Every structure is written in C-alpha cells, then in structure tokens.
Amino acid sequence: MTGEKPSKLIDYVYKPIEFVSETLERKLGIVSVVIISLSAMLGSGLFVLPALAMLDMGGPGIWLAYVVAALVVLPGAISKSELSTAMPTSGGSYVFIERTYGPLLGTISGLGLWATFLLKAAFALIGFKAYLWVFEELIGISINVEIAALILLVAIVGVNIMGVTIIKKVQAPIVTSAVGFLVIICIWAVLTMEMDWNRPIGPGAYGGGWEAVAGTAAFVFVSYSGVTKIAAIAEEIKQPSKNIPSGILISLLISTILYAGIAYIMMAAVDPASYETTSGAREDPIYVFANAVGGKVVGIIAAGLAVITMTSMALAGIMAASRYPFAMARDNLLPEALENVHSQFQTPHLAIFGTGLAMAVSIIVLPVQDVAKLASGFQIMIFIIINLAVIILRRASATHSWYTPEWKSPLFPFFQIMGIMGGGTLVYLMGQKAIIGAAVCCIIGLVTYYSYGKSHAHPMLTPWRTVRTEFTNSDQYDREKRWLVFHAAADKTHPDYLTEGEFVHAMSIIAPHYDGFHVRNMFHEIDTNGNGVIDVDEFLQGIEDNFEEQE
After folding, report:
1. What is the DSSP letter of 547?
2. What's the rounded Cα separation, in Å, for the pair 499 and 516?
3. Are 231 and 84 in contact (CB under 8 A)?
4. Structural domains for the chain
5. What are the φ and ψ backbone dihedral angles of 458, each rounded to 5 degrees?
6. Cross-strand partners of 276
7. DSSP-derived secondary structure for 169-215
8. Does pLDDT of 263 surpass 80?
9. What are the pLDDT digits (tens) for 379-434?
10. What mean pLDDT comes out for the span 79-102?
11. Cβ(134)–Cβ(122) under 8 Å?
C-alpha cells in the first residue's frame, strides 16, 4: 500500500485482500448461473463423447463412468463454492490459487486454465464437424470446418464483448431446447422401442471392470469442467454467497442426471455396434440415437442442435477463459491493459479479444482435439490443488483474517481429502497424457512469471507460507503471525503504525490472556521514542523481547 513503511524483519509487502469490486456489474441471478454453467458442459460431453467413451471402456456401461467422474468433481465443486463466497471476484480458480499459494503458482494456474479453457472452447467450435456431413448431404455443398469455426468465433467474441446479459439471452433458449429435445427423444425411445435395460449393466457392460470404469471416468471428466467455470465470473453474479454455491451444485446434479440417464437409455435403445465404424467410434452418437428413434428428420434436427449447442459451449468457454488474464492483470502478473473494461458494455474487452485471437490461432495451427485432451490432466490437477487450498485456508484463517467464507463446505475435510485422492487416481490412470499437459502449462506459466510477473508483483505472505512455516520454523511462524495481526489491526488511513487502541486490539488476538493494564504498559515500553504510535518493527521486536522476559 502506498505510504507503507517496509519492515526490516519481514521480507514481504502487505497487500490488503479485498474482493468487493465495482469494476464489473453484477447482473446474473441463480437461473442465469445454472444456464451458463450447463451451457459450458452440455456440448461435447453428450454430443461427441458417449461413443468414444464406450470404445475406451470396452462396453456399453458408460453411464457409470459419468457417475464416477461426477463423484470426483463433487469435492472440487464444494470447495470452489466455499472459496467463491470468500473471494467473489473475477478469475475463479486462478484467484483462489494465487491468494493461497502466491504469484508463481498463481501465474502457472492462471495461464494454464486460460489455455485449457480456450482450447476446449476451440474444440467445441470444430467438434461439430462430425455432424456437418448431415447438412452437406442435405444441401449438396462441402463445408470447410475451419472457416465455419472462425466465422462463428468472430460472432462469439462480439457477443462476449456486448456483455453477460446478451450471453444469458442467447444461451437460455439454446440450453432449454437441447435439454428438452434430448429428454423427449429418451422418452420417445422408452415408449416406442424394444429396450434392453440389462445391456448397460449386464455381463461385459463395464469392459475390464473397475479399472476400465475409472479410466473412462478420467476420459469423460472433461464433460464436467464447465460446472465450476461460473466461479470465473463471480464478480458478475448477484448475491454471490447464495447464488454461486447453489448454482454450482444444482448444475452438477442436473448434468450428472442428464449424462448418466441419457447415456444409459442410448445404450439400452440402440445396439452399441451402431455407434462404431470400421475405423473406430462415431463422433455423432446423438444423431445415431435420434435417427434410430425418430427417423431421418429427427436425426437432422439432432445434428442442428448439436452444432448450436457446441457453439453455445464455446460462447461460455471464451467468457470464462477471458476472465483469467483480466484477473491476472489486476495482480500485475500480466500487462495492465488487459484489465481495461469497455465503457459501454462493462466487459473486459481486450481480454476477450485476446482470448478470441488465441482461439483463432489454435483452430488454424494446432491439432485442437488432441491438445484439448492433454489439457484435461492439468484441469484435474487444479481440482486437487483447489481442494488442498480449502484445507490450508481453514488452517491459516486465524492469522489471515480476510478468509471468511459465507458458505462453508460440509463435513470438512472429508470432501477435500476425497477430492485429492480421487483426482490423484484419475491423474495416475491418465498417465503420460496428464504429465505432458501439466508440463506444458507449467512451462508457459514459469516463462511468463520470470519474464514479466516477478518484476511487477510484490512478494506476499501467503496462507501456504504460514501453514508451511508453522510446521518447519515455529519462531518465524510466530513473527509472521504477529506481522499479519499488526496489519489487520492498523487503520487503512495509516497502515504503517498502530495507535494505542489498535495495539490493544492486536494484543487481544496474540495474547488474549493479558489484561488491559499489562497491555497498555507494554505499549508505552515498546514506544521508545514516545511519539504515541508503534511501527511494525517496534511492534515485532518489542513483543519478542517482552515474551522472552516472560519466559
């Protein structure tokens, strides 16, 4: 803070943690939160992955893989819900990690999440290519997938710049139409087709058993990545302490029911062989299903909805992705221009434009589908780190008084430990892919931090440092704890010293057993120059000397 006198005893800069910002306008209610969250998920997870998952598992019991993946996501969803109510600002997981672990890991996570989200949004834009053959056959014209994806990308960037209200209006009818259509097709199939209800649960349904189920769960994990994307735009949500946890958990429940239920009915209604070709799994399983249930016209409608829904998924993806560089610019880890907000639309337009440009390059240059799969390993690791962050912040909250979540994880720390163990298992099952994806993201983050962020960001005393020091160096832990208490007690108008009243408040935290008379005498003993105030080094040294005398 400007005007603060640095301490000679603590090599950190104190930065007040404030998460209430008026930079972006809060416009989204609970319904909008659920719709945006679902629109970020109900794309490739339903329209592309089911047949690929079946081939990966070696059987039609893929519904169980979706359930297992949801159980692994649940702890992360609960942890993010708690963290979001303590830090209701743009940036989501990046903010949680940067505030808990510091700017180095924050840079790695922020850029890694930005890259993975934009790659998955780019994958959604070109993922509809599996359904384009339906329209090519219908109109007799060959469609260039890259050109079509780039045209849609321009439109998506424009909609994002115009703001979340426009996005809400666009996505609401798309999500409701897609969900409604799929539910109707499932009911139609149950009423009119000869269902083999035993097929998705009978002998051979789960391929190689639990190992195959767990491996496929890791494969479809990406289907749920959108459930917590809403945390990245927390600054634009009304009543975040209520709407974020409710929106995240409701979205996870709805998406799990849809994924598992539709996958079960798809496999029970249609022979699994229909979802395969001689070269592998079909990437248009919803068309196969809809065509088998209602005929060619219904299949064409399904293909059209697939294209629209995948575009909607990309729309939500670029919105969430753009908030990472916006939040990082606030913390001086990226150029401050990315923090600029459009005067008319109140959106981080430069961050959105930059994200869109990166997506365009990805579509043209990179094998987006393969790279997006590699990025899944990094996202699972982020879930592990987020679960651990809640444990660290709860432990350090006595000294880092800014951590006051309005909604707390139930059964703490059961869900967090479950999430860490479950995520670790999925990373292990992903093997080399997870390591490659994480390594690339780490390299990008390290290069950015040491070339730009380190010289612009100030070193901060993080909760992770506090918890680590508590177990490795008790004397240093006590000093750093007192340093944090000093700054928490100091008034914002004079952050570099304590008055007698503020000193009394600080001592009530550090040594609550001291009576008021003793504390006031200590204040005058520490105030050696008699100016009526105590700076941070006088405070730290004076308390240490006093405690040593007491011993």
Report:
1. H
2. 15
3. yes
4. 30-451 (1.20.1740.10), 473-550 (1.10.238.10)
5. -95, 140
6. 281
7. HHHHHHHHHHHHHHHHHHHHHHHHS---TTTTTSTTTTTTSHHHHHH
8. yes
9. 888 889 999 999 999 998 877 878 889 899 999 999 999 999 988 888 887 777 77
10. 87
11. no
CA separation for the pair 322, 333 (Å, rounded)? 15
Predicted pLDDT at 1: 40
Of residues 253 and 25, more confidence is placed in: 253
Assign residue 116 a region (left: φ > 0; alpha: ψ between -120 and 50; beta: otherwise). Answer: alpha
Cβ count within 10 A of residue 278? 4
Could you tell me the two tokens for 353? 């434009």
pLDDT tens digits for range 62-83: 999 999 999 989 999 999 999 9
Q: What pLDDT score was predicted for residue 165? A: 67
How many residues would you count in the chain? 551
- CA 71, 73, 75: angle at the middle one, nearest 5? 85
CA distance 399 to 383: 25
Strands (E), 112-217: none
Q: How far apart are CA 124 and CA 126, in angstroms?
A: 6
Q: Are 413 and 473 in contact (CB under 8 A)?
A: no
Bond preceding residue 245 cis, omega within 30 of 0: no
Average pLDDT over residues 430-456: 85
Residue in the block written with tokens 């570099």? 496
Q: For tokens 């917590």, what's the residue? A: 228
Contact 520, 484 (CB under 8 A): no
**What token pair was written down for 308?**
């629209």
Q: What is the mean pLDDT of the chain?
A: 84
Evaluate whether 355 touches 111 at the Cβ level (below 8 Å).
Answer: no
Please give the helix or strand (H or E) that residue 126 lies within, else none: helix 103-127
Give the pairing type, strands 276-277 and 280-281: antiparallel
Q: Are 387 and 411 in contact (CB under 8 A)?
A: no
3-class DSSP assignment, residue 498: strand
Q: Given a cut of 80, is residue 530 above it in pLDDT? A: yes
Q: How far is CA 16 from the centre of its chain?
A: 24
- Strand 497-498 to strand 280-281: parallel, antiparallel, or no bridges (unpaired)? unpaired
Q: Which residues contact 450 (CB under 8 A, 6 or more apart)?
A: none
Cα(234)–Cα(407) distance, rounded to whole angstroms? 14
Distances from the Cα of 538 to the Cαs of 127, 399, 506, in angstroms? Answer: 63, 19, 14
Q: What distance in Å separates the CA atoms of residue 322 and residue 474, rounded to the nearest whole number?
A: 41
Strand partners, 281: 276
- What is the model's pLDDT at position 261? 95
DSSP structure class, residue 227: G
For residue 79, the one-letter residue type is S
Expressed in angstroms, the distance from the first to the final Cα of the chain is 36
pLDDT at 449: 93
Backbone angles phi, psi at 90, to 5 degrees: -65, 145
What does the DSSP 8-state code read for residue 551?
-
SS3 449: helix
Asked whether the bond before 6 is cis by omega within 30 degrees of 0, the reply is no
What is the 8-class DSSP label of residue 87?
Answer: S
Largest CA distance in the chain: 91
